[in-house]
Amino acid sequence: MSSQGTFRITDKVGDLFDAPPNSVLIHACNCIGSWSGGIARAFRDHYPDAYRIYNAHCKRSLPERLAGTALLIAPRPDAGKQHYIGCVFTSKRFGRAKDTPAMILRSTAPAMLDLMRQVAAEMENGEEIGEIRMCRINSGLFSVPWQQSKRVIERLQLGEEDVPKDVELPWEIVTYNPE
Ligand SMILES: Nc1ncnc2c1ncn2[C@@H]1O[C@H](COP(=O)(O)OP(=O)(O)OC[C@H]2O[C@H](OP(=O)(O)O)[C@H](O)[C@@H]2O)[C@@H](O)[C@H]1O
Known about the structure:
By secondary structure, the protein is an alpha/beta fold. Helices cover 32% and strands 19% of the residues. A six-stranded mixed β-sheet has the order 1-6-5-2-4-3, sandwiched between helices.
């Protein structure tokens, strides 16, 4: 690995979905299988096939096992957009039953590491990965101030056991927010 195994986050104003092919678009998910509100609803509208894969993944497992993990969904033929969808499971449930901010932050670190390991594995298989884009996860319906999640992600360390030597992971994560 040429860099230190830490991520640099750049915050931008713009449309998350207006990304080049093979970009990874990351958002925070509950473990119940619902993309019904916030940006998750837009993901469901743009990528219905990815929603079905996410939902089936949740149905196969218990929320307690999924929290702190991630699911990387490869580009599907739907909507014509060739984007990877990165689901980070940061709260077991949603709405009034969502986890506390402290629990959400505790799940965010291992979930992001799990996702990046999956991205690295995809690259090791010869798949092309473009930009890593993210919404300001946890900061809307999950009610965790963005700066707190951002700090957790910037402190992550990926070692050689996470990223194979010959893989050059993109170490910049760009967030896109409408305002
Ligand atoms: N249409 C849109 N286009 C662009 N940006 C949009 C947007 N809508 C919101 N944002 C921004 O995107 C960031 C994250 O805010 P969100 O509230 O989405 O997500 P979150 O990570 O706090 O929470 C996750 C739970 O929200 C969902 O809703 P359900 O539980 O299904 O109802 C999930 O399924 C999870 O459970 C904030 O910066 C919002 O300004």
